[in-house]
């Protein structure tokens, strides 16, 4: 079986619009969560999020391209450009290159603007480009067009696990020989009135801050952004002398087939065990876990139980959603990038906002301050509504 | 002014709809956990109460002891709704 490595990463998120800025925020334990600034935010009960508040589309795209690009696609393209440049990919990959990108809500802002026009503003027509803007595969397709990748290209949608599922499938494409290089990860731009209004109804959003594993947590905080990673067959990367950031060692996905929203510790634990088996690793090989760590009561307790059932002595576990927010279908990609900071630089990103230990979440959660560590492998968890679990194992 | 009996009847009807029970099976002092309402049923019942009385119920599923709204029994829900309606009128 072909080994798969990561040769480039790129991101835009509430912390920074590039990898160096994001790494710096992780090192500082800085949170990107703040007051929401979009239209009608004053009509929401929850008014915080990890928004890209200073995002100016015109700085990144010429005016003639913007009518085709919902923010979810803009984020994916800017993150993708950074990742491709870092990897130094050749321009002639063609059918040996592909894109698999996760997103949960796709072009939700485009849906909202169009519905507002016809329902609220009484207009009788919307932009002719609404459909290509809002389709879930728009970010993946624009990346394929931009970089001339004509192999396997598709979108993956599995709520909060979308990016982990996307990366797992990209790994499998390369292992199976269907491609040598895959751009993968996720993009999300759900921070708009309708997006937050929908989440509000579930009563799981925190009104003040995201405090995963802390006893005084009040729930999750939504974030926006994209993470794009260049997955490459190891021999392909070595042959062109590319710098390798980490190996994508293993992946597994499971379904709870139980409750549509309540998480199952058993389903999560099974995904972790299978990812370790896929990587040919034992639990004691793992030096860091990037938790799903949403900051909801239900997730944090179930995830702690799952980790304890897999690991006799759990390694340090942190929830970086406390900094970049829960970027829903993109979050797994941001968290994979956090794992690369841990592996490549030996720095564990912290769980920010942590205040009070919870006896039911008795893990070393790297509270508030990043920590130097020596490690050779990391696990990244994603557990979605719908009972879908997707876990990746990385190795340096 | 909405009568307490009307609120109580609405709370019982809304819980009964979520639980697929006849309203007559829910006592005026029933405890929500004893009725077996799950977390989604709870947020759906809260939404129905908000719509019925045009109030906003401060409820967060992540706080096991609700500081702002006691959803533990029919009696406590009725008292909470009554208070919110009164605040609305004030």
Set down the secondary structure blueprint.
The complex is a heterodimer of chains A (396) and B (90).
Chain A: E1 4-13, H1 19-28, E2 34-35, E3 48-49, H2 57-60, H3 71-87, E4 97-102, H4 108-120, H5 130-134, H6 138-147, E5 153-156, H7 162-175, E6 181-188, H8 193-200, E7 225-233, H9 234-239, E8 246-255, H10 265-279, E9 288-290, H11 297-310, E10 317-318, H12 321-324, H13 331-345, E11 347-348, E12 371-372, E13 377-384, E14 388-395
Parallel strand pairs in A: 4-5, 4-6, 9-10, 9-13
Antiparallel strand pairs in A: 1-7, 1-8, 2-3, 6-7, 8-14, 11-12, 13-14
Chain B: H1 4-19, H2 32-35, H3 39-53, H4 74-89
Helix pairs in contact in B: 1-3, 1-4
Protein architecture, described:
The complex is a heterodimer of chains A (396) and B (90). With 396 residues, chain A is of the alpha/beta class. Helix content of chain A is 34%, strand content 19%. Chain A has 13 helices and 14 strands. Chain A has a 10-stranded mixed β-sheet with strand order 5-4-6-7-1-8-14-13-9-10, with helices on both faces. The model of chain A has no long low-confidence stretch (mean pLDDT 98). By secondary structure, chain B is mainly alpha-helical. Chain B has helices spanning 4-19, 32-35, 39-53, 74-89. The longest helix of chain B is centred in the N-terminal third of the chain and has 16 residues, at 4-19. Classes of the chains: A alpha/beta (396), B mainly alpha (90). Chains A and B meet through loops of A and helix 3 of B.
């Amino acid at each position: 079986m072909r080994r798969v490595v990561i040769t480039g990463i790129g991101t835009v998120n509430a912390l920074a619009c590039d990898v160096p800025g994001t790494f710096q925020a992780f090192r500082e334990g800085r949170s990107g969560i703040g007051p929401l600034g979009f239209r009608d935010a004053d009509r929401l009960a929850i008014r915080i999020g990890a928004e890209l508040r200073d995002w100016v589309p015109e700085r990144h795209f010429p005016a003639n391209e913007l009518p085709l690009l919902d923010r979810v696609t803009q984020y994916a393209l800017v993150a993708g450009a950074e990742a491709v440049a870092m990897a130094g990919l050749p321009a002639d990959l063609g059918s040996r290159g592909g894109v698999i990108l996760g997103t949960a809500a796709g072009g939700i802002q485009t849906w909202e603007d169009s519905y507002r026009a016809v329902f609220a503003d009484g207009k009788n027509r919307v932009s002719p480009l609404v459909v290509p803007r809002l389709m879930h595969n728009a970010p993946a397709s624009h990346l394929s067009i931009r970089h001339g990748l004509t192999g396997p290209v598709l979108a993956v949608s599995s709520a909060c696990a979308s990016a982990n599922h996307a990366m797992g499938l990209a790994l499998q494409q390369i292992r199976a020989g269907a491609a040598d290089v895959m751009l993968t990860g996720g993009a999300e731009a759900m921070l708009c009135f309708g997006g937050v209004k929908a989440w509000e109804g579930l009563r799981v959003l925190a009104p003040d801050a995201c405090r995963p594993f802390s006893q005084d947590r009040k729930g999750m905080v939504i974030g926006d952004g994209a993470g794009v990673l260049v997955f490459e067959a190891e021999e392909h990367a070595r042959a062109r002398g590319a710098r390798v950031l980490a190996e994508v060692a293993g992946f597994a996905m499971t379904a709870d087939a139980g409750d549509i929203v309540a998480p199952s510790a058993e389903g999560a634990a099974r995904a972790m065990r299978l990812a370790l088996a896929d990587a040919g690793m034992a639990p004691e090989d793992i030096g860091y876990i990037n938790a799903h760590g949403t900051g909801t009561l239900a997730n944090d307790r179930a995830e702690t139980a799952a980790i304890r059932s897999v690991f006799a002595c759990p390694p340090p576990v942190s929830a970086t959603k406390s900094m970049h927010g829960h970027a829903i279908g993109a979050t797994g990609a941001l968290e994979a990038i956090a794992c690369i900071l841990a592996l490549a630089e030996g720095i564990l990103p912290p769980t920010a906002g942590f205040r009070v230990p919870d006896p039911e979440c008795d893990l070393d959660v790297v509270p508030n301050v990043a920590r130097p560590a020596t490690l050779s492998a990391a696990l990244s968890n994603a557990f979605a509504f719908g009972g879908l679990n997707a876990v990746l194992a990385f190795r340096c | 002014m909405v009568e307490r009996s009307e609120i109580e009847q609405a709370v019982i009807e809304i819980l009964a709809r979520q639980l697929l029970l006849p309203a007559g099976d829910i006592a005026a002092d029933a405890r929500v956990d004893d009725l077996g309402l799950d977390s989604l049923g709870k947020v759906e019942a809260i939404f129905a109460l908000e719509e019925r009385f045009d109030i906003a119920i401060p409820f967060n599923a992540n706080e096991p002891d609700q500081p702002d709204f006691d959803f533990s029994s029919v009696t406590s829900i009725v008292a909470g709704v009554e208070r919110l309606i009164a605040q609305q009128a004030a």
